[in-house]
Amino acid sequence: MLPVESTTENLSSEGLYCITRERFKRGERLQCEIRIPGESSGSPEPFLRLQCHVTVKRVEHVHRGFGMGCHIEDYSLTTPQPGAITM
């Protein structure tokens, strides 16, 4: 499956709610990467990456596509590797 971009509207330690143009099915398990601006956490890095596995719990049609509520199963926080090029 090709990467799908979404906009996260709500994030907690238990889950997230995002808007995407792709429709996913309830119960589907996904791997996702959430990019968090580094300055919001006091990091010198331009962004932090939250790598996580989620289970889709709710899907609804919204005016911008599909709203998707997901439960975070597990996650890890990473930063870009030294010398890595970010775009």
Roughly what fraction of the amino acids lie in strands? over 45%
Number of helices: 0
Mean pLDDT: 87
Secondary-structure class: mainly beta
First-residue to last-residue Cα separation: 22 Å
Instruction: Kindly state the number of beta strands.
Output: 5
Run of helices and strands: EEEEE
Q: List the uncertain runs.
A: none
Largest sheet: 5 strands, antiparallel
Helix content: under 10%
Strand order of the largest sheet: 1-2-5-4-3
What gyration radius follows from the Cα positions, in whole Å?
14 Å
Shape: globular
What does this structure look like?
There is one protein chain. The chain has 87 residues and is mainly beta. It contains no helices and five strands. Strands 1-2-5-4-3 form a five-stranded antiparallel β-sheet, with no helix packed on it. The mean pLDDT is 87.
Fold blueprint:
Blueprint (H helix, E strand, L loop, with lengths): L5 E6 L3 E6 L8 E9 L9 E16 L2 E14 L9
Antiparallel strand pairs: 1-2, 2-5, 3-4, 4-5
Keywords:
5-stranded antiparallel sheet, 5 strands, 0% helix, globular
Please summarize what this structure is.
The chain is mainly β and 87 residues long.
